[in-house]
Structure formats: structure tokens, C-alpha cells
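Objective 1b: paired records.
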Amino acid sequence: MKKQIPTDSHFARQELTRRHFIRLGAASAAALKLRSVGADADAPAPGLAEALGTLEPYFTAPEKFRDVSRGKPLPHSLPDDKKLAVGLTRETWKLEVVADPENPATIHNPLTQKDGTALDFAGLMKLAEKYSVRFAKVMTCLNIGCPLGTGIWEGVPLREVIWLTEPRENLRRVFYYGYHNDDPKQMFRSSLPIDRVLEDPFDLPPVILCYKLNGAWLDSERGGPVRVVVPEGYGFKSIKWLTRIVLTNLFHANDTYADGNNDVDSALKTFAATLSIPKEPKPREAIPVTGYAQVGVSGLSKVQVSIRSQSAQPHPEEWIDAQILPPPNHWGHLPEGKIPTNTLGFDAATGHPRSWPMRLTMIHWAVLLPGLPAGQYTFRCRTIDQKGFAQPMPRPFRKSGHSAIESVDLKVKA
């Protein structure tokens, strides 16, 4: 199945020569073995240039983001007059921040519509003049292996809004809610411990009230005018169409996703998948493969591949390293095609990533397989994280984010 994943057509293709790719070889048709093969030619590896030419820009264009929104009707599909009436425009958006009436945090200055103190978009922009941040992040659904899109998200740290309420004590968790048609049965909510909101551990970016994506105002389909973005979180943590925040003394989550036996505290995992691979290559003809890897909180050190004959006797699976592609020369759908200044994780002078692969984003990889004898084969790919754990470890469980190893069948016809 072809995956609609944001990728990059502008990677430095001069890097993709035969000497830069690990190739696989067949010891025999009965028992396939892997080996690393060097090559002297400077010309691009056959087929790789064509495969790379089909890749899309690194940062996802608005129309290419996948959508898994909830609601009937979907809030972004409401007519303009309805959006105005319910606060789904920058002109009418307002955010309440109040104490939980049943388990109240002690706050001195709640922000409410009733008292005329709710935060409006102009107030958010006033905070943005001093506190705005931006960072790159891949948005991924907890139970879908395929990322939805990658972008630079811009907003105000949630903690700056929390501090406006002047909290005093008995504050253990932050509940936040998105607009879902004023229907209690459709209510979608998520939560975070107050510690994560007030402080950014392990060099993570802050949790933000997001109003821009890739330099443009956040549109309604992406959750505008304002949504939460949790850098290390799956999509359900980054509530769209934010309307209300409740400060509570409860110690546990109230996430809607908990109802489906999901792990609501799971952070992004590291995993690999293919983007393009010929399903019926010709015998002895080199096989170009491209793919991507989501770089979770555990980082990424390697992408590895294996290929096995389905007719051979079982033997231990052998893995070799694929080529992790470098940062692109052109990032794609950004103002002037450049990384905005002061984007976290990027050098301000050069616009280059300070480290690569960047956590919480994605990278691309490629490998050239040598021609194979006629037969049925299975191709697999996996990641090795920064601590040496091979996918699906260290967190292999379902309902806590995709980490299963992908298998692709190939048929080489005689």
C-alpha cells in the first residue's frame, strides 16, 4: 500500500552515489545472506535518482496533511457564520482557564467569559511578543503507524497562560478541552501533569498554545485558531480547537483516549517504514528502496534492513545498515523556503539543524538492493535508537504508539 507521507524531493542527490549505499547480496536462492558491498562508480545508483525524484518536500504542505479529526459534523467543516458564533475564528476565539469545581486548584485570577477575563486572540498575541517559540514536530496518531505530517509549530508556552491565573496550591494536573459541537457525547479532552507544563525536561520544547504552522496562521482543519501542541506527545495530546482549560487537584488523567484502552502517557516512539519499493522487480536488476523513520524520544542511531527468501530454510535474520539521508537543502513549505529564525533545534546563523537526526521529527533513508534470483522475498526495516534498542523495543506494546516492524513482500518473476 502506498503511504502518503511527507518526504523530500530536494535531498542532495549528489550524495546518493553507489559508494554511499549498503547493498545486499544473495548467497543462494535457497539461503539468502546479507553483505555490505562497496562500489567505485560516482554515478547515481541505478533507479535511486528516479525513486528520490518522487519524494515530496520535508515539511508537509497543508493539503497533504492527513486528517483524523473527530466530531459530527467535523468542526472545521462548519459554515463560517457558525465558526464565528462558537469562537472558531481569530476574531471570536476566547479561552477560559478555571479551577476544577470538584477538585479545585487554588487560583487567584480565573479567566472566564462571564467576568470578561477570558483570554482572546489579541491577548495571546500580546503574550507572543515576549514568549513565542517555534519547533519542528511530526504529528502522529497513537494507533496509526503512518505519520500525519511534519511542520514547524509556533505558539505561546501554555505555562505563561497558567501563570495569568496566579495559581497558589493544590494544582497537580491540567485538563484541556476542544470544541466538539457543544455535544457532551462528542467531548474530546486531554491532560498533562502540571510539572510538564511548567518545566521542559530533557531539552524538550515547551507545551504550547499553537497559532501558526509552517509560518502561516493555523487553519481550521489543523485545529485553528488555537490548539495545544505537546512536542513529545501523540496527536490526541495536542487537542484541536482549544476552548477551555481546567486546573485540578486530581492526580490522574481524564483523557478521552483512555476510554479505548490506550496508554495516555506514552511519548513518541522511534520506528521505520518504507516509502517506495518495487513489488515485482526483474531478476538480477538492482532494487532501490526509500523510507522514513519517525524519531521518537529515544532518538535514532541507525536504520537497518533485511531481506529473506520465503522458500529458504529458516535462519537467523541478518540486518545491515541503510543510509540515513542528510538534512535537505530546501525544506519546502516554509516562508521563502527557509527555517524561521529562532526555531528551536536550528542554528540561528545557518538555519541548519544543531543535531541530526532531530528528535520528535522524521528522517529519510535509502538502500540499493542488488538483483535477486526469481522467487518470493520478504523485505523488512527497523530502527536502532540512541540507547541501542532495536525496534520494536523498548516499548513494544500496542495502544501506546506504533512500533511493529513493517514487512513488504517482493516477487521476482523469472
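Objective 1b, second protein:
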Amino acid sequence: MDEYKAGLMKTFVPALLGCIAGILSFLITDGIRARDPLGIIVLVFCIYANKFILPKLGANLEAKDWAGITFMAFASWYIVWTILLNLR
């Protein structure tokens, strides 16, 4: 059961942080195209935050997990930021 919980944490936490990163990217860039690199920097920091958050929640991170963590964070960041930009 612990492996199941760890797997859920490895999926849920990056998706949640990606959503938060998408909202922060939208707020920081304020819809100005010249500030788009700042939005990407926010994403990178949120992906890096997973390194500290996931072990505290009991997930044992291996090297192969980072591809999935990065993809989940990127996908949720991209979707949230795109939706917010289109609502403007």
C-alpha cells in the first residue's frame, strides 16, 4: 500500500505544483509577450521544489522518476497558463 501512496504523490504533487506555476506565470507576465521567459523560470523553480517536497511526503525518488515528474509539472503548467491567457 505504501508504494501505491508514493505513486499517487509522485503524480499529484507535480500536477499541483504545475498548476500553481501556471497561475504564477500568468500573474508575473501579465500577458506581456516579452516577459514569457519569466514564466518558464517559474516552471523550473516549481519542478525543482519537487526535490524537497516529495521526500517529506514519503516518496522515494529515483532517477527514472524525474522524467515523469517533469512531464506532469510541465503539462499542467502549460494547460493552466494557456487557459488563463485565452480567458483574457
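Helices lie at 2-29, 36-56, 65-87. The mean pLDDT is 90.
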